[in-house]
Amino acid sequence: MAGEHILVVDDEKNIRLMMQECLEQAGYQVDSAVDGEHALEKIAARGYDLVLLDLRLPGMSGMEVLRQARGRRPDQPVVMITAHGTIETAVEAMKLGAVDYLQKPFTPDEIQAIVARVLSRRRLPVDEPAASFATCVEQAKLLIQRGQPREALPFLHRAVSLEPEHPEPYNLMGAIHELLGEPDHARKMYRAALAIDPSYRPALTNLHRITQWDYHPETPELGEAGAPPPATDGEGTGEGPGGAE
């Protein structure tokens, strides 16, 4: 973590200072910008390990900053900061290349957690499946975000072999099939996740969306990595985990 450099872009001074302080306390180097123009100047001058970018900025919008930043530095990781009620826009931002989003209001712990998670993905090797469940899942997410969803499948199969009673790999396999234009396979995997944990929110969200009559493909919910395995004493509502491919 030492030396990793983060840019915080937010026009609200109290939020900007709070984010800068909590990240510096965690050991990061932090720059800040109050608007899109200044953010792009800083990004052009030097690449950052991560940019935290508010969706709503004066003048140039956060979406436009994202487009231009990714145009100048295609490998620049960006996490969007979004207010309540703008999740759909945050999903659109992820289609443009944002690696994640953080919804207001948030705590310093939540900021540190998402930054650590995103930066850890960049450090992961992607040559072969790892030994731990959490690392396999993070490797798969990294490949999905890099536009290599098929290459992520072996990592998820390994994750299933390590923790077969965890819903997250099945949800991620569903997301991959959805991204590959295979909605039937995607539904099968989302139902497999829900057979393990009927309350698993990412799979519930994805299955609800993909079964709508006016369904249009969009960025699936990937969920959080590293969560403890769920309780399995509830009844499932779909196909079991044997449906994993």
UniProtKB/TrEMBL annotation:
4-aspartylphosphate PTM sites in chain numbering: D54
User: Carries keyword Transmembrane helix?
Assistant: no
One GO cellular component this record assigns the protein to is: protein-DNA complex
Bias kind Gly residues: ranges: 235-245
Q: Where are the TPR repeats?
A: 167-200
- Fetch the SMART domains from UniProt: REC (SM00448), TPR (SM00028)
Could you tell me which residue ranges the Response regulatory domain spans?
A: 5-119
Task: Kindly state which keywords UniProt assigns to this record, in alphabetical order.
Answer: DNA-binding, Phosphoprotein, TPR repeat, Transcription, Transcription regulation, Two-component regulatory system
Please name the GO terms that the record assigns under molecular function. Answer: phosphorelay response regulator activity; transcription cis-regulatory region binding
Q: Which SUPFAM superfamilies match?
A: CheY-like (SSF52172), TPR-like (SSF48452)
Membrane-spanning residues: none
Q: Name one GO biological process term.
A: regulation of DNA-templated transcription
One Pfam entry for this protein is: TPR_19
Q: What InterPro entries does the entry give? A: CheY-like_superfamily (IPR011006), Sig_transdc_resp-reg_receiver (IPR001789), TPR-like_helical_dom_sf (IPR011990), TPR_rpt (IPR019734), WalR-like (IPR039420)
Q: Where is this region: Disordered?
A: 218-245
Please name the PANTHER family in this protein's record. Answer: REGULATOR OF RPOS, TWO-COMPONENT RESPONSE REGULATOR ORR33
Describe the function of this protein.
May play the central regulatory role in sporulation. It may be an element of the effector pathway responsible for the activation of sporulation genes in response to nutritional stress. Spo0A may act in concert with spo0H (a sigma factor) to control the expression of some genes that are critical to the sporulation process.
In its UniProt entry, what is this protein called?
A: Stage 0 sporulation protein A homolog
Q: Which organism is it from?
A: Caldinitratiruptor microaerophilus
